[in-house]
Fold this sequence. Notes:
Blueprint: E1 7-12, H1 16-28, E2 33-39, H2 55-62, H3 67-73, E3 77-79, E4 81-88, E5 91-96, H4 109-119, H5 130-136, E6 157-159, H6 162-175, E7 179-182, E8 185-190, E9 197-202, E10 206-209, E11 212-215, H7 222-227, E12 232-234, E13 243-250, E14 258-264, E15 267-273, E16 277-284, H8 291-300, E17 311-314, E18 318-320, E19 324-325, E20 328-330, E21 336-337, H9 345-358, H10 367-393, H11 400-407, H12 414-424, H13 437-446, H14 463-482, H15 487-493
Parallel strand pairs: 1-2, 1-11, 2-7, 4-14, 11-20
Antiparallel strand pairs: 3-6, 4-5, 8-9, 9-10, 12-18, 13-16, 13-17, 14-15, 15-16, 18-21, 19-20
Helix pairs in contact: 1-6, 1-9, 4-14, 9-10
Bound molecules: flavin-adenine dinucleotide.
Amino acid sequence: MATAAPYRIVVAGGGTAGWMTAAALIRFLGPGFTVTLVESDAIGTVGVGEATIPQIRMFNASLGIDEDAFVAATGATYKLAIEFVGWTQSGRYMHAFGDVGRDNGLLAFRHTWLRGLAEGVAEPLGTYALNNVAALANRMQRGPARTARVLPDMPYAFHFDAALYARFLRDFAEARGVVRHEGRIVAVARAGEDGDVQALHLDGDRRIEGDLFLDCTGFHARLIGEAMGVGYQDWSHWLPCDRALAVPSARARDFTPYTRATAHDAGWQWRIPLQHRTGNGIVYSSRHLSDDEAAARLLAGLDEPALGDPRPIRFRAGRRETAWAGNVIAIGLASGFLEPLESTSIHLIQSAVERVLKLLPGRRPPAALRDAYNAQAVHEIERIRDFIILHYAANDRAEPFWRERRETPLPDGLAEKITLWRESGDIVREEGDLFGEVAWLQVLVGQGITARGYHPVAAQPPRAQIAEYLDLLAKLNAREVAQMPTHEEFVRAHGAADTEIAA
Ligand SMILES: Cc1cc2nc3c(=O)[nH]c(=O)nc-3n(C[C@H](O)[C@H](O)[C@H](O)COP(=O)(O)OP(=O)(O)OC[C@H]3O[C@@H](n4cnc5c(N)ncnc54)[C@H](O)[C@@H]3O)c2cc1C
């Protein structure tokens, strides 16, 4: 009896996107599929991408990866929050993962807090977020709270070495049957001028045939852009930063369980502590800052000596017009780019891989499947884009770059979201939005946008009751954090790299 030919999936590119994709496909697809990956050592990877959001834990867990082993193999540290420094003149704030305060039935906590502010009995918002309090105290724990059952688990993510993560996933994928070819894609064979991709031609006269091609070639977009001719929607009028310089520095003494994003006069600078080094980079608009000035600013902002020369990276904020065209689906940087202010790119890879697995196209996928995939991808990245623009739009800095950010008209929907918050203290989350109400709340408040109103139910309790409630929540958080190990102690117990990792 003849057996059906296997469905051949070809992953073009072996950066974080390529190896995450290949690892997930081989883990979840059965024996009727083959997965082949092509990467070029000569071209290399973008080599940055070290901060994540908590969803990465689900990705690793779905592959059956032991978390402590992953932390040790990638030199990772734990991440509870992102600290924004200098984004407004009033200083710093955190976007912490997890809840802020406790909702009271249907009444969101933010309304109680707004009432407390109006009555002069509320502390800054971060006081009520367990992750925020723990992050500032450099402490970390996982699992249920130890001191009060009403407190939530702390969601967390990781800072890790992107190259080591790709290596880790490569070992995982190859052990399960992914076949890797090293070489440069020199041509893409299509069925006719407008047809599907049939094969990739590699240097050395090799031909890799496939049924479905996943373009993970990064900014090169070798398949989706070059071969299929899918255009790029440019968002640089909203997000004009177009360059970065990245440099590692010696391991920080301050082993923080959070990413720091410090604003400067034409962009911002990241600081990401790993076990063996600190990752740093400056993101800037080349219209407002020269490369030399950016390099000087980056090096001056390090807390330990640099371990090399700053490495330049160029980019353009935006997205592919369609992530899926013909039998090519772009994943990772080939599908679009948003600056790493909220550490969302690796998450977008994860979510694209999930979508590919859910809507896996057969040999002749209906157009409606492709349309559904593309519509979901657009919604997801555009809502993240709006969240990132929010950080820039609401600022009170004086430099030309920041003035322009304030004066640029906002995308549809974002202005309305800000107005809703201002007028009523309300935040509405749509289906498919990555960031929830408390994420928006922290950034709205952190960027200094004040709400004039709150829910009428929050106006009912006497002032003293509001004060007592807020005081209790603050005390519960402080007591829980006081018994947590330090972040460094926690890493030592859960994933210390046992061999020296080269910086
Ligand atoms: C400055 C900066 C900072 C970032 N920080 C973060 C962060 O903190 N958190 C986060 O989530 N994300 C971050 N990102 C994004 C993150 O780096 C990427 O999402 C992630 O690395 C995925 O990249 P990629 O695999 O799509 O592309 P790449 O890493 O560029 O990989 C492309 C692959 O394609 C191969 N390739 C290309 N052309 C060819 C060809 N012709 N033939 C054969 N192979 C080819 C290359 O060899 C390589 O293997 C950052 C990005 C930038 C630019």
